[in-house]
Every structure is written in C-alpha cells, then in structure tokens.
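Submission sheet (multi-component)
Chains listed below:
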Amino acid sequence: MSYIKIKRPKFSLLDKVYVVELVKGLVITMRHLVLSLLGKSRGKKDFSTKGVGVCMQFPDERWDSRLPEYYRGAPTLVRGEDGRERCVSCQLCEFICPARAITITPGEVDPTSSCQKQEKAPAKFEIDMLRCIYCGMCQEACPEQAIFLSKEYLITLTDRKQAIRDKETLYRLGGTRKGLVNKWNQYK
Amino acid sequence: MDAIINWYNDLMSHEIWFYLIHTLLKLVLMFAVILAFVVLSVWIERRVAGWIQDRPGPNRAGIPLFLLQRFGSKEKQPLKNWLHFFGIPETSWIARLCTWLRLDREFPCWGLIQPCLDGGKLFLKQETTPSYVRKFYFILAPMLVLGPPMVAAAVIPFASEVNTCYGHISMCVANLDIGPLWIFAISGLSVYGLTLAGWSSNSKFPFLGGLRATAQLISYEVAMGLSVIPLLMMFGTLNLQQIVQFQADNGWTLLPLWGEGLSWQRWAMMLPLGISFIVFVTCVFAEANRTPFDMAECETDLVAGYHAEYSSMKFASFFMGEYAAMVIGSAVVVTLFLGGWSIGFGADAALAAYSEWLAVLCQLCMFIVKLLAFIVFFVWVRWTLPRFRWDQVMKLGWLYFLEIAVANIFLTAAVLYFVK
Amino acid sequence: MFETSLCQILFYLLAVVAILCAAGVVGFRSPINSAMSMALCFAMVAIIFFGMGAQFLGIVQCIVYAGAILVLFLFVVMMLDIHGEEHSRGSYIHAAVGMLIAGFVAGLLIKAALDLPGAKDNTCPAITLCESAGELLIGEARQVKEAPAAAPQYGGCLPELSAAAAARLENPAISEADAAKATSIPDVKLLGQCLYTRYNIPFVILSFALLAGTVGAVALARKIRKD
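Outcome: structure written.
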C-alpha cells in the first residue's frame, strides 16, 4: 500500500498570530450579514424571493412553479389516453419497493374494460406515504408506464390512516398520460 | 395617607432598612435584566446566525393577533377592524406603517417569542432520569451551572450613583472593593456544575465533556486573572464602580478621547491595554464555553458533551447557564474595557449636573446598548470561527496566553514607570 | 445592637456548617462526597471572611481553594474507580494516628487564635482581625486603646455599613455622613502590607515549599522508561 502525503499549507508568522486572519473572517461574515439585511445577498436575483437572505418564506412563497422537471414527489397511478387503467398488477413495483410501501392485491380484469387481453388488474393498490421514500424505483421498474412520481411534495396528515392512499386516490392524483400503450390492444 | 408617608419616611431614614430596600430593588432589577438578556441572546444568536448565512432566522413566532378576534369581531382581519374603529382610512400612512410592521398578521415580535416558546416547550417536555446516574449530583449540577453567573453579576455597576434625601445609592447590587476578583471567583465555581454533570451521568461522553470543561476552565482562568492586572495597575483600584467612574471622567480604556485620556501618557498605555483586551476577551470566550472553545460539548467528538444525559428543564438550565455566562462575560468586558455605563465625551457629568436620575436612566440604557453590542460580537465570532482542536486550546491557554499575560504585566509596569 | 447580634448569629451558623462539612470530609465513604463537602467548607470559610469585612481574603479563598485546587481534586477523584473505595473499611490505627495529628494541629490553631490581640475581651472576631492588621498599617496614627468604644458597632455584616464603621473606627471624630461616604477598608492594601513586611520571610519560605512540591510532583509523574 502506498500512502498519499497530504500537502499542508505553509503559514507565515502573520497567519500564525491569527489576529489578522480573524479580522478577515469577521469582515466576510459581517459582509454577509449586512448584505442579507439589505436584501442584496448573492444569488438573490436568480431566486426571486422577498425578505431577508436567500431563503424562501415557505408557506407564503411556494416551490410549485420552480420545481425542476426531474423532481420526485409522491408516486401516483395514471390512466392512458383511452381511459384504461395502465396497471396490470404485475407487482414488480411492489417487489422492488425498498421501503415496502406498495401493497397490491391482484384481481380479475373488469369485464367491461376495453382490453381483455391482460391477465390481471389491481383489485387494491395501496401506497403507504409514511413508508414511501420517493426513490422512484417503482416508476423505473414499471413495464406498463403506469406509475409515475408526481411533483406533490406537501403531504400533511393528521392520522396514520390518512397516509395510506388507495387506488382511487392514486388515479385521481395521477390523471391521464399521453402516449398509447398498445401492448394490450385487442387487435394486436 | 399621611400615615403611610410617615411610615415610609421612617422606614427609609433608617440606615439598614434603606440599605436593604434599595439593594433588594437593584437585585430584582439585575435578575430581571439578566434573565431577559439570556432569552434575548438566544434570539440574537439565531437571528444573527441566520443573517450571516443569508437566511432570515426565526422570524415567525409572534403573538398572533387573530386570537384577539374572539374578543372583538368575527372578521379575520383585526387590523382592519381596529383602523375602522379609530376612523383611520385604509390608505393612510398609519395603515401602511401597520402593514409594514406586520400588524395585520401578528404582533410584531420579529420572532422574539421564539425563545420563550422554546423555554415553554422544554419546560413541558418529559423529564427522563437514566437509572444509572448518581441522582444527587445529577440534580445538583444544573443548579451549579445556572447559579454562579447570576451571583457574579452582583458587582457589575449598571449606572452611576444617586444622592437621595434618604441616603446615597450606588447603582450596583454590591459595591465591593474586589469587583473583578469576585466575578472570577464566582463564575469559576460554575466549573463544578459541568464537572459533576459529566461525572454523575455515569456515561462515557458526558464524562469526557466534563473533564474537558474542567481542564479548559481552569487553564483559562489563570490567563484571564493575569490579563486584567495591567488594567488594575492603571486604575489603582479593584472597585468596579470607581473603575467605571474613572473611565467616564477620563475616557474609556480603549477609547481615551476626552478628559485626561487625551494625554500622550494615556495613549502610551494603549499597547499593554490592547494586548490585555485581546487576551481577556479570548479568555472570556473560553470561560463561557463559546464556540471557538466549546470543547466541552463539541458534538463531533462527544455526543453532546456533559449534558448528553439531561432532558427537559435540566437541559434548559445548562443552556441558560451558558448564555448567562455569555451575558456576564460581555458585561465584564464592557465594564472593564468599554467604559461600562458611561455615555462618554463628558456627557455623564453634564447630565448628572442637570438631573441625577435622568443621568442614571441614560447610563442604564447606554450600558444595555453596549452589552447588546458585545453579545452580538460574541455571536458574530461564533459564526465566523471553526472550533479549535483540543490540543490547540490547551496550547493557546498555557503556552501563549499565560506567557503573554505575564509579560504584559511587566510591560505595563515599564510603561507606567517611564511615562509618568 | 441589631447588627452585632445578626453578625454573630450568621457567624455561628456558618461556623457550624463549616465544621460539619469538615467532619464530612473525613466521614464520607465516597471520595466525591468528601471533596464536595470540602468545597462547601471552603465556601463557608470564605463567607465568614466576608462577614468579617476581609473581602479580599474571602475571595482569594474562593478562587484558589474552591475554584482551582478542589476542582483539580475532583478532576482526579472522578477518574478513579470509587466503587472499591466506597466499600472499604479503614483501619483503627490509621484513624487513631490521624486523630492525634488533627488534635495537635487544632491545638496549635486555638493557641494562635487566643494569642491574637483582643481575643479574650469577647469582642467581635472581625474587630480583632481588623485591629491586628490595622495596627500594622496605621501604627502610630491610631491608638488601639481608643477603639473599643466604637468597636461593638462594627458588625461587618453588610459591606457598606462595615465601611462606615471602619472609617469611624479610624477616626471617631468624623461624622456619620463622612464615614458613610468613605469606601470600605482597603483590605487588599492591608493584606499586601502584612504579607510583604511582617510575614515576608514565612511567605517566601512557603512559596519555596510549594515550588519544591511542584517540581517533585513533575519528577514523580515523569516515569523514566527503560525500554
């Protein structure tokens, strides 16, 4: 094993006396203080907020419009353009979920559904938001593009039971997605 | 009515009762001010930390005025109702000022309520005492931390003297002839609290924290005691009230711009006094266990230091003790080096000639302003400097500051000898 | 009258607590308890000094003994394993020898105390202390014999009153108002004069003894390793 010799900085006597360096540090922090009190902190322009410092006053100002494309919020289920439930209850997301937040109970396909080719449909689909860690593995694993992470980040509960989101809630939050998945098309 | 006045006159003209009553009043004032400052300094710490780090700090907690709507109207905007009640139009400057002061949302406390709420929270939290602690000392330790700074404050003068018709009042709880020594002695006793807390917790990290606290406080007490000696050599007295009076007449120790302070002899003294100031202030930081020196509770090495096993109000008393030590440390530095209560530029004597009570009031305000400024300095340094390493702390204390302080005494003696 | 009696009550109260604490130092099994009762004992003695008007002495007692030396004791004791100590029984021979030495030292101290001027005339201990010290400082300026008339008034309980009384003690002719204005007795000066004139040689010898002790401790602590 070789070892790496770390290069330590050489200090002059003035640095060692420390007083001058201390004053320099104090000037830096004081500049930050004054600038943030004046509302001219660095980076403030790119980050249009009111008030002191570069800090979003959360309940008054929200992240919503500034969230990036790749933001990972609460997972939701989506319907296709044709209104079909995309989920086929393959349970891959349930298996891959590291926090075991997803519980799927497979059931029969609805006889009125437009595509009867798939074998299963979720009878129950529950996500426990107290367990979910927003990792996005379910979205990654899903072969049907049925589960997506939304941009919802504000999940407030007054009860543990409220944390468990059932199928209806998930579909309501997810809405519909464009792009047909023609895999199960009866004409195929 | 006359009977009461007579009784009051009789009471106050009795030397001992007069002494007891005015001392008790000063004591209550001092305690109230210090406790208020402990709370205030917590707030200052968090706000200034926020500003330095480009964020607002705790700016939310206030007394929400919408609580008041229950007593008044059912509408949700009490400000509007109030304006309407007083017949002020909503576009007037008063209304805009009220909105700017956030009166439409909550009482304008700028988050000042936060430390009070924190205190309340800590008070209501569950108190857990681990089964393996040594109970007696475990309970005694927080008291020993909070008590000494309060007692040490007794000798700090917060205004000058007043002659009433009943007698002479010196605005200082105990006008002792040994002011600085009293403060060193009493605040030095708080080391017992830290040590005992560490030991009685019967747990490794608190114990290490307690040992560190003991070693550090004892080390820096030596340098601190020696570093004020140049000052005492110049003043020739140990009485803090007289020291401040001297500074009021002849210029503050570090700002001799009036009275005798304009002489070149006084400016020649600035060199030893400056050294003494730097050493003393650093030692005060170390004694108050503040950040560059908070070895006793440095969370990266020791979980939380000596108070790791404490919860609820016992933890809060350690917290308050630390801030009380900071307030007292600032008060001592202000008294010794920055002129204490004196307003400066000869304004004290002029005011006192006009009205003694007015002078006392102004001086009290001046003292509080200076105290606040120095507390902000404390906080400012905390958010500037990283924590020292343990060996650096010991080296600084024993190898540099002790030697510098001793050499400084001789330097002062030489300056005093050659200059006069 | 009021002051004197209050002063005496306080003195006896503090003295009793101090003696109890001193007994506790010997009596407690746990070294920490012993150390803490020793600290309390020192604090009581310091307060007694304060009551006598010897503020400097009291505060030095506080700084040096309670603030530094005892903390070091505690520092060392805490690192020991005190469980064994708590359950051990000392031998009677040790106790007997210790008692003998303690009795000898106590006898010496009592003898010295009784030899102080004014000790036998039943005056307040503060007066005798101040007089014996003041004698040195003021010397010819004041006759000790004139003092007793004013002496009982000097309670020394409350610092400012004691100052006034002390000023009166020095010059019975000055008025009460002037006495009140005078600051308290310059006991720092008094002590310094005592220490560097009359007791200079014992002082120097003592400091040499302490130095020898320090050097010895360092020599003992530095183990010479032979490897």
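Remark: Chain A has a mean pLDDT of 83.
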